[in-house]
Amino acid sequence: MKIALGSDHAGYQLKSAIIPFLAKLGHESLDCGCGPEEKVNYVLYGEKAVRAMTEGLCERAILFCGSGLGMAIVANKFRGVRATPCWDEYSARMSRAHNDSNCLTLGARSTPADKARSIVRIWLETEFEGGRHKERLDTLQELEGRNCKP
User: Fold this and answer.
1) Which residues have CB under 8 Å from 39's CB, separation 6+?
2) Less packed terminus of the chain by CB within 10 Å, N or C?
3) Which residue in 98, 103, 133, 148 is the catalytic one?
4) Which fold has domain 2-147?
5) Are the CB atoms for 106 and 10 separated by under 8 Å?
6) Tens of each residue's pLDDT in the chain, 150 residues
């Protein structure tokens, strides 16, 4: 799977720790920035990575910032994106199984690299359960259609 990655300066180190882990799992990364030593506006780098996903260059996205919250807000501004900040393995599993999350956000200031690797692995390996959860996603898509500009 090809995965778009984006970070701000706070998330750069954690993103750098996840890139080789993704390769070890057999995934390809598209690093949309930022680079080392840059102080940046997280919105711009979250947008780059999410656009890569929504335009079909990647299947999913993982975004990194200090808390993981700002990047989730950015990503969820895009039609069809279900970005979920995850702090542990349970939230990662549920974000995929019940919400079919296609964008993971991680907080570098609260998530050590080993924990982040575990979260990423579970998020990538967990399948969407469908069923009643599909019905809820359909309802969310209708809500998005009514409230978001094309």
Assistant:
1) 9
2) C
3) 98
4) Ribose 5-phosphate Isomerase B; Chain: A, (3.40.1400)
5) no
6) 999 999 999 999 999 999 999 999 999 999 999 999 889 999 999 999 999 999 999 999 999 999 999 999 999 999 999 999 999 999 999 999 999 999 999 999 999 999 999 999 999 999 999 999 999 999 999 999 898 876
Copy the structure tokens of residue 37.
């030593």
Phi then psi for 61, rounded to 5 degrees?
-135, 150
* Separation of alpha carbons 31 and 48, rounded Å: 9
98 among known catalytic residues: yes
**58 tagged catalytic:** no
Domain positions in the chain: 2-147
- Choosing from 32, 34, 58, 65, the catalytic residue is 65
